[in-house]
């Protein structure tokens, strides 16, 4: 069991990148973290969100949340953007390679690339504050370019969250299990009959009813079956 901080980038006054048709990076990643949270918790992991609604948090707030909670892993969700709207692909960013952050980054990259059929833009190093100052394994996911109109149109934030959850569970040697909880069907009849047994001899059946009544089952009766039974 691990403690995961899931960080939905941007939020509030900071919408992040905005696609040509108006989709906001901040909204996409918030939906994604909720799905990742649901799946990680379903599989026994412990999860904390840096933000659970469309609010603004600066980088220091996000770092402090993770460090003060004593998280094992920090995963920051983002979309990418570029002036050339033909660019596509997925990349993962770590502070430096050669540790558990890179291992998690590889699981994330492989899972996302396999499902999105996305271009591999690799695992990159960067000295971002949110990576440099967190005291646990930390990654930033740049999942595709919202600046690409086709990506903006087709990108599924729930699927994004599902892919991240699957990779995170792989990191802790778990296989994702997502069995929907089925609600019991509501009976449509007013009542139900319980049959105790079938007797060919009437007196034997009557003796059994008397025995059941003595044991407290007052509503026990002999019910005749049709001839062909």
What does this structure look like?
This protein is α/β, with parallel strands linked by helices. It has 2 domains: 3-171, Zn-dependent exopeptidases (Aminopeptidase, 3-Layer(aba) Sandwich); 183-229, no CATH class. The chain is 37% helix and 17% strand. The protein contains 7 helices and 6 strands. The chain has helices at residues 25-42, 59-69, 100-116, 129-132, 149-154, 157-171, 202-214; strands spanning 3-8, 46-49, 73-80, 90-94, 120-125, 137-145. It has a 6-stranded mixed β-sheet, with helices on both faces. Strand 4 (90-94), helix 3 and strand 5 form a beta-alpha-beta unit. Helix 1 crosses helix 6 (157-171) and helix 3 (100-116) crosses helix 6 (157-171). It starts with a strand and ends in a 15-residue tail after the last helix. The mean pLDDT is 90.
Question: What shape does the CA trace take?
Answer: elongated
Query: How much helicity do the residues have?
Result: 25-40%
Average predicted confidence as pLDDT: 90
**What sequence of helices (H) and strands (E) makes up the elements?**
EHEHEEHEHEHHH
Class inferred from helices and paired strands: alpha/beta
CATH hierarchy class name of the largest domain:
Alpha Beta
Largest sheet: 6 strands, mixed
Count of distinct strands? 6
| Largest sheet, spatial ordering of strands | 2-1-3-6-4-5
The share of residues in extended strands comes to: 15-25%
Domain MurNAc-LAA: 63-173
InterPro entries: MurNAc-LAA_cat (IPR002508), N-acetylmuramoyl_amidase_3 (IPR050695)
Keywords: Hydrolase
Protein name: N-acetylmuramoyl-L-alanine amidase
């Amino acid at each position: 069991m691990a403690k995961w901080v899931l960080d939905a980038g941007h939020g509030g006054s900071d919408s992040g990148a905005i696609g040509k048709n108006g989709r906001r990076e901040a909204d996409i990643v918030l939906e994604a973290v909720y799905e990742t949270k649901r799946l990680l918790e379903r599989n026994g992991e412990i999860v904390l969100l840096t933000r659970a609604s469309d609010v603004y948090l600066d980088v220091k707030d996000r770092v402090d949340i993770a460090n003060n909670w004593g998280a094992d892993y920090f995963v920051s969700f983002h979309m990418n953007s570029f002036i050339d709207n033909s660019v596509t692909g997925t990349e993962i960013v770590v502070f430096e390679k050669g540790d558990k952050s890179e291992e998690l980054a590889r699981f994330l990259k492989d899972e996302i690339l396999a499902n999105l059929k996305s271009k591999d833009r690799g695992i990159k190093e960067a000295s971002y504050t949110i990576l440099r100052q967190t005291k646990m394994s930390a990654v930033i996911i740049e999942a595709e370019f919202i600046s690409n109109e086709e990506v903006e149109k087709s990108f599924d934030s729930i699927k994004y969250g599902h892919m991240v959850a699957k990779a995170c569970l792989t990191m802790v040697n778990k296989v994702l299990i997502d069995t929907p909880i089925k609600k019991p069907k509501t009976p449509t009849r007013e009542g139900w009959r319980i049959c105790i047994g079938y007797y060919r001899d009437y007196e034997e059946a009557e003796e059994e009813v008397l025995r059941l009544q003595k044991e407290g089952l007052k509503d026990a009766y002999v019910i005749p079956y049709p001839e062909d039974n």
